[in-house]
Amino acid sequence: MAFRRHKFGSAGIGLMFGFSMCITLFGPSNDFRSGVSTWVGLDKQLSLGRVIGFSYEDPTVSGDGKPITVILNKDPKTGVAIDPPIRAYVYKPGVKFSPGVNHPELLGPGVEDLSMRDGKISSASMSSGAVFTVSKGVFNDEEVDYIENASATRGWTPDKTLRTAGDANSRYVGKGKTIYISEGCWWCHTLLPEQTQDWQMFGQPPFLGDFNGEMPTAFGSDRKAPDILHVASRNSSREWMTMHFFNPRLVQPNSIMPRFDYLWGKQDANGNSIDFAKWRADYSDYLHGKRIYAPEVPEPARDSEVRALIDWILTSLK
Amino acid sequence: MLMKYLFAKNDEIPAGSATIFFGFSSIFWFVVGTGLGSFNAAKLAFPDWVTGTELFAFGHMRQVHVLAVIIGWISMAFGMTMMYMTPALGNTKLWSEKLGLWTVFLWNIGLSLGLLLLWMGITSGREYNDLIWPIDLVVIFGVLLPLGINVWMTIAHRKTQGIYITNWFFGACIFMVMIVFLVGQSPELFNLTGLTEAYLTFWFAHNVLGLWITPVAAAIAYYTIPKLTGNPLYSHRIGHLHFWAIIVFYSTPASHHLMSAPLPEWLKSFASVEGVLILIPAVAFVANILLTMKGKWTMFVENVETKFSITGVLLAIPLNMQGGFQQTRAINWYVHGTGWIVAHAHLALLGMSSFLEAAAVYFGLQQMLRRKLYSLTLANLHYWFFIVGFCIYWISMTIAGLIQGAGKIYEVPYIDVVVAEHPYMIARWVGGTMVFTGNVVWLFNMWMTAREGTLVPEGRYAHELAYER
Ligand code: HEM
């Protein structure tokens, strides 16, 4: 065999495949790197933490080890009122930081510089926990948002911050998005209003800098239901959401969304155990006209999954 | 029996064992996968059917269906065909039956485990890449690598001079799909985030389809059709055009899956041009096979394997026409994210690809078992349930997709779209259930073939004998 065609062929495959990998992988990575984080991008990554989905800190994908977003109306250290209230992202000791804190180069030019210089993010330590906020600053005459390590700049500790906010002002956003992933909501819903025609119905499409540090993005490719990136600005009623998740047909008779009543867990907010069988029987009576009103939906417990899910929707999706 | 062979000496394992185990595993996963598909379809048509537990929630089952059919059915059928076609084309034996058996074994274990975890909601949250990275590493190093070694070594030890086009595809596609898996895992392994992650997710999804599922299916047809009809391949040179065009054009347009995301504009434009160029390999393939059929078209009616195979090739025509054009900006915005795409995905996987593999599995199992197919009637039943069910599925989802597209531009409230789609959701469920039923028949038919099919005499092919039932 003078002409070694398998050698020639293998080299050819390597060459061509390598070439197309260069174009499709190396090329775009330059563009992605120049994306400057927007406020949305920073808010998202700080409230979601390192990874949603399978990871060392959350191997069962149930929302463990995620940061907590709180709404502060007074300073946790000094007690001075904050008006209007601001968001702070509380990382208890041991909770993994969001990617941008550990790798500031992900934040994009400008945001990186300010977060390091004014935000002091490099002094945050995972073992003692930290509280972050998003602040506004000026870099090269442009206004940018950057991450501030409030534990270093204002002396806020995770514990005190959580206590100041209280449960009423805590939002379990990271856990909520985890539920979104593990329950497969993204097989029906999308988080990406399309650039061409979705403005009217679903709101503004996202920008390049809205995603820095988010993992996974879970855009969804297959829409059988409304895009929910901006659902909270269409409908911000916690009561509606609660009824809708328990049984979508309570508020939207033609919906094909599944019931998510199992996200309530065993007990309601008052510690009473939830009698699903009775609820179903009553509901069936209601459908058959034997009751005038549908049965009441139990109030979700503090640490229930559905509470976190609604927190995420109402806090993050605006 | 598998256990016995796993620890036997390589020489003591009868030739064809790996093929047989691969073949039956693939049919088994086909039954499971389509059963899950039919269940999911029912959930979308009747949301209050089986509720109250997360185990039967749509969001927990959908990805299990998708991966069961892709990694279980399609890829195992590929493994099966590689086990018998590669040696046959090199006029030699499989390099190692034992390695082949270990591959099936690990494959079934790894896949069952992965699907179980997915079912429980333990996922990476990345479409088509839903398996968590430890399982993905099993897929790469426990499944693809051993499969690849077996195929590459068999090709290297061939007793023929040239390498037939099918083997070019087999060897190259295993290599490329391994690279694709490795790169596709990088967001999880190295915590790449944001748009990079989104892009890599669809880079992976696109390349798994384009460098594995469709080209290997085509490679299979390059073997089955000449073998069944006895005609030589119309043109080996056109086959090579197909091969090289796949490598160049199919590996690039990944971003056409994200046309409405804020990706760089140059990348989207590049992708839609490259995407149209995929028509080159597509037309080369279809033309080559159909010209090979010259003078043997009666076999399309008389012989089940040919019937399946040619149906797959014919379905490749609408598939590629859709594929080439639906990803251009002019059309993509209308159909993106609608049922149209689901219909297209099923045209590729359930239509084109599955028909080609079914033909090869029918053929290969009879060949390796040395037994004639148990029943022609049952095989025809399988065929008709499969094709009619598929058509119902495809047509109903295409209509549903067009309704959704219209809903997008006329900005009707979304719930009205949901209501309008309902009849088509029911039709899809009916179609899918027919496919599932056909597969159950197939599994029975093959099982009976292994037990009671007439023995094929030495030196003859199963398809040369007359059917008995
Ligand atoms: C009994 C037959 C089948 C039925 C009833 C069925 C049903 C379904 C359903 C309901 C979905 C979800 C679609 C959606 O999200 O709207 C789906 C998705 C999918 N199925 Fe099937 N399926 C069947 C067979 C197959 C087969 C044989 C394959 C491949 C070999 C396949 C591949 C896929 C893929 C790739 C998707 C994802 C589509 C996407 O990304 O939107 N299915 N199937």
3D architecture notes:
The complex is a heterodimer of chains A (318) and B (469). Chain A folds into three domains: 2-30; 34-171, no CATH class; 180-316, Cytochrome c-like domain (Cytochrome Bc1 Complex, Chain D, domain 2, Orthogonal Bundle). Chain A is 36% helix and 12% strand. Chain A is built from twelve helices and five strands. A five-stranded antiparallel sheet of chain A has the order 4-3-2-1-5, with helices on both faces. The longest helix of chain A is centred in the N-terminal third of the chain and has 29 residues, at 5-33. The N and C termini of chain A lie far apart (68 Å). The relative contact order of chain A is 0.13. By secondary structure, chain B is mainly α. Chain B has a domain at 304-469: Cytochrome C Oxidase, Chain A, CATH 1.20.210.10. Chain B contains 16 helices and no strands. The model of chain B has no long low-confidence stretch (mean pLDDT 93). At the A-B interface, helix 1 of A face helix 2, helix 3, helix 5, helix 6 and helix 7 of B. Protoporphyrin IX containing FE sits between chains B (34, 37-38, 40-41, 44, 62, 65-66, 69, 73-74, 341-342, 345-346, 349-350, 354, 432, 435-436) and A (187, 221-222, 224).
What would a concise description of this structure say?
The complex is a heterodimer of chains A (318) and B (469). Chain A has 318 residues and is of the alpha+beta class.
**Topology as H/E string of chain A?**
HHEEHHEEHHEHHHHHH
Distance between the termini of chain B: 29 Å
- Secondary structure: helix percent of chain B: over 70%
Tell me the total number of β-strands of chain B.
0
**Beta-sheet strand percentage of chain A?**
5-15%
Keywords:
heterodimer; A: 318 residues; alpha+beta; Cytochrome Bc1 Complex, Chain D, domain 2; 3 domains; 12 helices; 12% strand; globular; B: 469 residues; mainly alpha; Cytochrome C Oxidase, Chain A; 16 helices; binds protoporphyrin IX containing FE
